[in-house]
Specification:
The complex is a heterotrimer of chains A (551), B (110) and C (173). Chain A has 18 helices and 21 strands. By secondary structure, chain A is α+β, with helices and mostly antiparallel strands. Chain A is globular. Chain B is α+β, with helices and mostly antiparallel strands. Chain B is built from three helices and six strands; from the N terminus they run ββββαββαα. The chains are: A alpha+beta (551), B alpha+beta (110), C alpha/beta (173).
Chain lengths: 551, 110, 173
């Protein structure tokens, strides 16, 4: 894992001090709320329905056990005993008092974390593949370049007042778990015929009011030129992106309105100028320095299978189900990737208590080379678990209600905080996720339904990724009452697609029945082992519409 | 942001969030900010609503609260309640965590 | 137009010798800042004028989508210009940060680049990093506040238009 050097420590420390001054000036009345708001937002402090909310960045979703323990500590000392993991690999605290936030940030800095640029119209936390350096078939650990991008984009003097927020995601694998085509910039690490590593760049994806899939802008940007290329994209966007209407201010709208060809020409012209200066070519010695932090753990040489594991599976059917659903093959023989579901049946998606966070931190320290990952689907990952430790890890997780065996299944729902917390929301999301998971609580039924991603947003900003849910649900407000619109056929992976709306919205009372209708329609018409998304792509929207709106 | 008050609203109250901790507060008849909806001043008629909001905006309000606004209140038999789901949730707390927010404070006190 | 601001140039409070002109008034011998449209329309005449000339680059107002003026349009006139005033109509509109860097790094403009309009405390240091060396600030801003703000962050992660190299490079000098 990356470790701060003196330089990082100093800058983050100075930033905390600066924010402390800003809070003091706000409380004393020297700063008006108008003047203070952009400053607090740039430090991740929002005002939500019931209280302030602080969003802490988890760069590329990687945490050490010490860092996760600090989140537990913060939850206990400054909040109400829990945190919420978000779709952008961040963690949010829902109840901090404004005048305590500087202290909180100071404690956070001691574990090399911060809340810088987790809000505002700037370059946000860089996200990546939660299986980085654990999954087979990766070109390169995506966290190396993600860390370089993190540093380049932090306090960027030119790109802190962009037309709108800006999100970058990186993957080093053909199976996209980072939703790169739904980001302002999505980066796929590639190797060319000569064996050189470079980057395929996608620009202009995003959700919100106008969901769009990113366009491929470059097939292969060589390693040394990546920052120059990114700076070119950012500058073109900063100069020519729209600021007249916040719904049209994301780069996706610019790409859409300018056209892919012209956009590519603008970027390449700017890139040529920046690249000529060689100013942004990162020294190979610095790339080596950062790479060294992500060196592979010292894996033991182990057999590819484990008798201990097999015996445990035979003894304990629940454990066997959990292994089948939540454990993924590791690149190293004798190891596995463990997914920790934060979607217990009837629970709040993405929430973890202080005690749960500490339990996961302990397991990571003891069994997973001190590493935890956070996924954009609001779960946690222990990336490197020995096969023969799986049962021990499972038992410990189970004791903390963290062993729900539902990864990728219908109850593994993404949901934004919705109207229970969020100031922008039109409807609640969490209760719906809870009701759906209770309706489908029977795990055997969930396995029979198979991979099915439900994603719920409480407003058109789409923080709950409803556009790319196999089943998407959007909460809308009609005169102060909640309604829910269904869309089908979305996907966030390498075959990204935007879901289509089925028709008129459902009430709070009828929406869960409607979801059940969609699911039974699928199980009725599926062929062989077809997944929901495959069936949808084969039969289209009509069979679902007919059943949903049959009176 | 969701609409707070509809044009035809008869009963209205003013709410805001407290600067120090973001707590939801309501403007009371004696121009204080109280933590419970029950203490809110409720006005009858659109003009009275405007006058109420004006009372929430003295020069020094920014030292205490953020973004005061009017919201619609309904009269149900003998008591008042906020009209929108949003304001019901603000007045009580998250519906998915009944142990948190004002609803929990009320339970502890009773 | 009377100056309703105080000018901080190269970190010091100073008398502003520049005046902003409108589209029609005949230019005096005083250093004068004009619009880009006037610069383009009267370039030949202005080239013959024997006094300092500046131009203000607007960040919005162009067309239906309110685009800003393109800094690249200044390129043919750079030899005539001693100053570019970059407008920040609201603090949210950060187009001018890019314009300043293009002027400094791609056009090698070495005259004054000043920030005008709504410029917040937290933006001053970033503006300086982008090559802006003069600030039109509200008369209430104290010079000490400005000086402090400039040194709140002692270093930078990335290169820009100033002499800071950025951590990724500095670690391997």
């Amino acid at each position: 894992m990356y470790r701060y050097d003196e330089f990082d420590h100093q800058l983050v420390g100075e930033r905390v001090k600066q924010f402390r001054g800003q809070v003091e000036r706000r409380v004393s009345g020297e700063l008006s709320e108008d003047a203070f708001k952009p400053l607090r937002l740039m430090n991740g402090v929002y005002l939500q329905l019931h209280a302030y909310m602080l969003r802490v960045a988890i760069p590329y979703g990687t945490l050490s056990s010490k860092q996760l323990r600090m989140q537990a500590h913060i939850a206990r000392k400054y909040d109400r005993g829990y945190g919420h993991f978000t779709t952008r690999q961040n963690i949010q605290f829902n109840w901090p008092a404004l005048n305590k936030i500087p202290d909180l940030l100071e404690e956070l800095a001691t574990v090399e974390m911060h809340a810088i640029q987790t809000s505002g119209n700037c370059i946000r936390n860089v996200t990546s593949d939660q299986y980085a350096a654990a999954i087979d078939g990766e070109v390169e650990d995506p966290r190396i370049i993600s860390e370089i991008i993190r540093q380049w984009s932090t306090f960027h003097p030119e790109f802190t007042y962009l037309p709108r927020k800006f999100k970058i995601a990186v993957t080093g694998h053909d199976n996209d778990r980072a939703a790169i085509k739904l980001h302002d910039i999505g980066i796929v690490i590639k190797q060319n015929e000569l064996g050189d590593v470079g980057y395929e760049i996608h620009v202009g994806g995003g959700q919100g009011r106008t969901p769009l899939i990113a366009k491929k802008m470059a097939d292969f940007v060589p390693k040394a030129q990546l920052l120059a290329y990114l700076e070119a994209v950012m500058r073109v966007y900063n100069m020519l992106g729209r600021r007249d209407n916040s719904y049209k201010a994301r780069i996706k709208i610019m790409v859409h309105e300018t056209g892919e060809v012209e956009m590519r020409r603008l970027i390449e012209a700017e890139f040529a100028k920046i690249d000529a200066s060689q100013m942004l070519a990162v020294p190979p010695a610095e790339i080596d320095r950062i790479s060294a932090y992500f060196a592979s753990p010292e894996f033991e040489t182990l057999p590819a299978s484990s008798d201990v594991l097999e015996a445990a599976k035979t003894r304990d059917a629940d454990f066997a189900r959990w292994v089948r659903a939540n454990v993924v093959a590791h690149k190293q023989d004798g190891y596995a990737i463990v997914n920790i579901s934060l979607k217990p049946i009837g629970g709040v998606p993405g929430d973890a208590s202080d005690v749960q966070m500490e339990a996961v931190a302990d397991l990571a320290e003891r069994y997973s080379f001190d590493e935890i990952r956070v996924t954009h689907e609001q779960n946690l990952v222990l990336p490197h678990i020995r096969l023969h430790d799986l049962k021990t890890v499972y038992d410990a997780l189970h004791a903390h209600d963290l062993a729900t065996a539902n990864l990728g299944l219908i109850s593994d729902t993404i949901a934004c905080p919705g109207l229970d917390y969020c100031n922008l929301a039109n409807a609640r999301s969490i209760p719906l996720a809870q009701e759906i998971s209770e309706r489908f609580a029977d795990l055997d039924r969930q396995y029979d339904i198979g991979e099915l991603k439900i994603k719920i947003s409480g407003c058109i900003n789409a923080c709950g990724h409803h556009h790319v849910g196999h089943i998407g649900i959007l909460g809308v407000d009609k005169k102060g009452t909640e309604f829910y619109q269904i869309s089908l056929g979305g996907s966030a992976d390498e075959n990204a697609s935007i879901g289509k709306i089925t028709g008129r919205a459902f009430t709070e009372e009828t929406i869960v029945d409607a979801i059940e209708t969609v699911v039974t329609t699928y199980t009725d018409v599926r062929e062989g082992g077809e997944r929901f998304i495959d069936t949808y792509r084969r039969v289209g929207l009509d069979p679902f519409k007919e059943r949903l709106y049959a009176e | 942001m969701a609409q707070h008050s509809s044009k035809g609203a008869r009963f209205q109250a003013v709410t805001a969030n407290r600067l120090s901790d973001g707590e939801v507060v309501y403007l009371t008849p004696d121009n204080q900010w109280a933590e419970t909806f029950a203490a809110a001043d409720i006005t009858d008629g659109p003009e009275a609503g405007d006058a109420l909001l004006a009372r929430a905006l003295p020069a020094d309000f920014e030292l205490h609260v953020l973004e005061p606004y009017l919201f619609e209140v309904l009269q149900d038999a003998s008591h008042f309640k906020p009209a929108s789901v949003r304001e019901i949730i603000r007045a009580a707390g998250p519906t998915v965590r009944l142990d948190l927010g004002k609803q929990a404070d009320a339970k502890r006190e009773s | 137009m009377p100056n309703k601001y105080q000018l901080i140039r190269e970190g010091a409070l100073c008398q502003d010798e520049w005046i902003y002109s409108d589209e029609e008034t005949a230019l005096s011998e005083a250093p004068t800042i004009i619009s880009l449209s006037r610069l383009k329309a009267e370039a030949d005449v202005l080239r013959a004028r024997n006094a300092k000339l500046g131009v203000q680059l607007l960040a919005d107002g162009n067309g239906k989508t309110q685009l800003g003026e393109d800094v690249h349009e200044l390129e043919p006139y750079l030899d005539m210009l001693s100053l570019v005033s970059i407008a920040f109509p609201t603090y949210r509109n950060g187009r001018g940060f890019s314009a300043a860097r293009v002027l400094r790094e791609q056009f090698n403009f070495d005259g004054e680049i000043r920030a005008s309009g709504e410029v917040l405390h937290d933006q001053w240091a970033m503006m300086r990093r982008c090559g802006i060396n003069a600030f039109e600030l509200a008369p209430t801003v104290r010079l000490e506040t400005f000086t402090e703000a400039m040194s709140e962050l002692s270093d930078a992660y990335q290169p820009a238009a100033d002499d800071q190299r950025g951590a990724l490079w500095q670690r391997h000098k």
